[in-house]
Design brief:
It is a single chain. The longest helix is centred in the N-terminal third of the chain and has 15 residues, at 8-22. The relative contact order is 0.08. The protein is mainly alpha-helical. It has one domain. 54% of the residues lie in helices and 0% in strands.
Length: 85
């Protein structure tokens, strides 16, 4: 990997100027940014992972087991959590 000397202050100013110029912007961030901003994450207290094991939730076996029964309710619950937070 090539290390480059980057002026981060100038880079931040350039990005800020582009955001102002465009007037609409989407930033994809990790959960740490949400949590620091006060937005609950799936892992935070009261988050969806208190109710469901994320490893199990992501498995095809969980999906197959719940398909047609609880899965629509669970997906709706996760989506509601995402919309409210």
């Amino acid at each position: 990997m090539v290390k480059r000397n980057v002026d981060t202050e100038a880079l931040y100013k350039e990005v800020a100027a582009l955001m102002v110029e465009q007037r609409q912007c989407v930033a994809l961030t990790g959960a740490g940014v949400s949590e620091e901003s006060g937005i609950p994450t799936f892992r935070s207290k009261g988050g969806i992972w208190e109710k469901y094991d994320p490893i199990e939730f992501a498995s095809i076996y969980f999906i197959m087991e719940k398909a047609g029964t609880a899965l629509p309710r669970i997906v709706a619950e996760v989506n509601k959590f995402r919309r409210l937070n």
